[in-house]
Design goal:
Elements: H1 5-17, H2 22-34, E1 57-63, E2 68-75, H3 78-91, E3 94-95, H4 96-101, H5 106-109, H6 112-115, H7 118-137
Antiparallel strand pairs: 1-2, 2-3
Helix pairs in contact: 1-3, 2-3, 3-7
Length: 138
């Protein structure tokens, strides 16, 4: 695992740069989501369901005794699950200061901002809000 959120984001940018067309990028995104560990059953409830997402997204955050914040999330939609996987790669397992200092600009750099539907963009914004809110409050 890269040492910082920024390093993890740079790693994702590099991965996506290998794909010339969006069909391949979407497939890579979906593959990322498929490799994501399922969320604990105890988090699959209304209290952990993110608002603002067209698909169902469950989200949880816990602060470890070492000070890092671990996120868990999953979606019932393949592309959204891939987005979740990317966000968790960058932000989960990091200290709050690193999380808050790292804007999700890597998503624009890999071109996702131009290739997501408005509803997926809203869901992505909800997920980022939840990540930042947890980092601020835990």
């Amino acid at each position: 695992m890269p040492d910082t959120a920024a390093e993890a984001a740079a790693e994702i940018i590099e991965e996506f740069s290998f794909f010339d067309d969006w069909a391949d990028r979407y497939q890579h995104l979906i593959d990322q989501g498929r490799r994501l560990a399922p969320i604990a059953e105890s988090y699959r409830d209304d209290a952990h369901k993110l608002q603002g997402c067209q698909s169902t997204v469950y989200f949880a955050a816990e602060k470890h005794v070492t000070g890092v914040i671990h996120y868990a999330a999953e979606s019932d939609a393949a592309i959204v699950q891939g987005l979740v996987a990317l966000l968790l790669r960058v932000y989960s397992g990091r200290p709050a200061a690193d999380i808050l200092a790292t804007e999700p600009t890597f998503l624009q750099e890999i071109g996702l901002d131009k290739h997501l539907s408005p509803t997926r963009k809203n869901g992505l914004a909800s997920m980022m809000h939840a990540i930042r809110r947890a980092a601020e409050t835990l």
